[in-house]
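User: I've been going back and forth on whether these two constructs are worth ordering. Before I decide, could you fold them both?

Assistant: Sure. I'll take them in the order you sent them. The first construct and its structure tokens:
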Amino acid sequence: MTKKDYYEILGVKKDAAPEEIKKAYRQLALKYHPDRNKSDGDTEKKFKEINEAYQVLSDPEKKSRYDQFGSAEGMGGFDFQAGDFSDIFDSFFGARTRRGEGGARPQRGANLRYNLEISFEDAAFGKETKIEVPNWETCPACKGSGAKPGTSPQTCPDCHGSGEIKSTQSTMFGQFVNINTCPRCAGEGKIIKDICINCRGTGKVKKNRVVKVKIPAGVDTGHRLRISGMGEPGERGGPTGDLYIVLYVKPHKIFKRTGIDISCTHSISFVKAALGGKTTVPTLEGKVSLKIPAGTQPNSIFRLKGKGIFKIGTQQRGNQHVNIIVEIPKKMNDQQRNLLLEYAKLNGEDLEKLGEEGIFAKIKNAFG
């Protein structure tokens, strides 16, 4: 094996402490790992040298022999010409570094869902409102550490803060390193002797938070609003989750919605339907006057332009459709009855047969 300056490869001095050597190796291994530099052929060679240097300098016995003889000859156990670099990388950083597993890494907080019921009008025109969301927040007493105020978590004596228990096994094929989550600290690297009574060691407390919600015009049932960073706090310094507000629109007593259009029914007298005139119809913004042409038939539909729902994010607005219902009177006095009979006579109808079907049935049939 060619003589190499392992101190120079790792960029440390000969009197460097083990932690300094370890830190230098971590930085270089991350920088020159083949998975991150697949297009660079020299990276693989550099990565082999870095691992070889660390295997020697991290082992007190091998380091002593290297310092004495100035080379790695006769040490054995370092065949970096073959094998999977990911296994070497994982043996040092742990498999979870690449796979995202294990409890020691920062974890993003959970997302929250809040169901919000709003009125038909609020869905049409939008609204800004406030809601109270029950949520877990960082404990103000211990600042999220879980330890009693005035104390702090201590380094786990079993894993020495790494969150992992490593065991090395030597075989004829080389050394194999098994890495498991430390059972004592559950991979945290720290243990709490005196827990915070405010959060009972969890580092979190439950609290209702007031959140401002801006509902855009044109939303409908099932629409989701996302408020970033309003979810649950992350673990071990991880980012906070998001809050998702799911909207439910109450049914309206008068209007029905189809897309951005709305519709309603409106009753008028049979006289107005026959002679025409004006009637007052409801809209989402109040009552308006609608002109009824003479001879309007039942179930005629009139359109009120621009009286519907706004299209989300635009100034475009749908229409309102008014379905006309002609009311037939259930009771009439003698004068009204005689006038209708006179109308039937002028219309050439057989007055003798009106009684067979009923005058009101004839009127109803006349209007569809």
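The second construct, handled the same way:
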Amino acid sequence: MFKQMKSDIRTVFENDPAARGLFEVIFTYSGLHALWLHRLAHALF
């Protein structure tokens, strides 16, 4: 699970030139939150 999260964060840095820092990406990118919560909900279903 954490490997996938690290991969998602790495993908954000590769595709978004405005991403400046790790904490910014983790705490402010709503698309990333939606992706993580979707995966969690899918696993719990």
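Notes on the second construct follow. The CA atoms of residues 9 and 22 lie 8 Å apart. The chain has a mean pLDDT of 93.
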